[in-house]
Amino acid sequence: MKVKTSAPGKLMLFGEHAVVYGYPCIVTTVESRIYVEIEKSEQFKIDAPQVKDLRFVEKTIELFCDKYKVDNKLLIKTYSDFSSQYGFGSSSAVTVATIRALSDFYKIEMSKKEIFDLGYKVVLYIQGVGSGFDIAAATYGGTIYFVTGGKVIEPLSVKNLSLVIGYSGVKADTASIVKNLESRIHNSESKYTKIFENIKKIVEQAKVSLINSDWKKIGELMNQNHKFLQELGVSTDKLDKMCQAVVDAGAFGAKLSGAGGGDCMISLVPENKIKKVESSIIKAGGEILNVKTNI
Ligand code: MEV
Questions:
Q1: Phi and psi at residue 14, in whole multiples of 5°?
Q2: What stretch(es) of the chain map to CATH 3.30.230.10?
Q3: d(Cα 248, Cα 29) in Å, to the nearest integer?
Q4: What's the CA-to-centroid distance between 71 and ligand 1, angstroms?
Q5: Which of 38, 77, 195, 274 is the most buried if burial means most Cβ atoms within 10 Å?
Q6: What CATH superfamily is the domain 163-289?
Q7: Does the beta carbon of 265 sit less than 6 angstroms from any atom of ligand 1?
Q8: Atom number, ligand 1, closest to the C-alpha of residue 123
């Protein structure tokens, strides 16, 4: 018997970094997915050329097989429609897809919360840090309001989110950016608490505005969120330049998305400004990533 499952990548809409410290964020999924295929084998073997860190697959299998007392003599193959380079969360997607494949293969029913809890354990084991928002996105899909560690996971009904996504050309290392910020927070806690409280206010307003499709307001909130990310010291000149360029070209608003230090920026754009905004990203030295969101 062979089973095949999948899980989507993600894009952070609001609240990155603050969500590591107990605050909420809003994340949406992208259409790009990672697929995992499992079949019985003589021995444990992983064939996953696109996975940049195989430990996510290995640890998932170890924890699952320990928890449910099942055999790990399996052949695990992965396929991917996206590059791990863009910061779309390929590690969390492969983790969730592997859990789903194992639960299908062994016919062990798992709730979404159980999938999330196991996946989050894997991430913490390997990265040491992280809020778990990416595991929640891969598990639940669509757009979700999320609080650290899965304290709240609330699907939001969001329609027609017209995002233009720009890649900065630089691959960011999330874990080291999060750890670097952690050490800076240590020396100046009240300054950072103030920034996180402000980001929280933005996330709460964005939640309402997203449900109401209030694009103008969402754009303003994106710009404000980006300013606070600059204050956290996680943006880069390139990301700032791309965000400014799209706003000048008629976007409702823009911000970096994810840990910062590179990866992507996102902008919310009126239909009739998409072409102009895309050219402005290219002029600023970025690359357009054509992926649908909120899947
Ligand atoms: C990284 O994409 C988002 C962070 O908030 C880290 C996390 O929540 O795990 C910086």
A1: -150, 145
A2: 2-156
A3: 27
A4: 33
A5: 38
A6: GHMP kinase, C-terminal domain (3.30.70.890)
A7: no
A8: 9
Q: Where in the chain is the domain with CATH 3.30.70.890?
A: 163-289
Residue with the nearest Cα to atom 9 of ligand 1?
A: 130
Q: How far apart are the first and last CA of the chain?
A: 29
Q: Is 131 in the pocket of ligand 1 (CB under 6 A)?
A: yes
**CATH number, span 2-156:** 3.30.230.10
Distance 131 CA to ligand 1 centre (A): 6
**3-class secondary structure, 275:** helix
- Catalytic position from the list 47, 71, 134, 237: 134
pTM for the full predicted model: 0.96
Three-class SS state of 154: strand
pLDDT higher than 90, residue 81: no
pLDDT in tens, 5-16: 999 999 999 999
Instruction: Name the closest-CA residue to atom 2, ligand 1.
Output: 258
Query: What's the pLDDT tens digit per position in 96-127?
Result: 999 999 999 999 999 999 999 999 999 999 99
Instruction: State the helix-helix crossing angle for 189-211 and 215-232, rounded to 10 degrees.
Output: 160
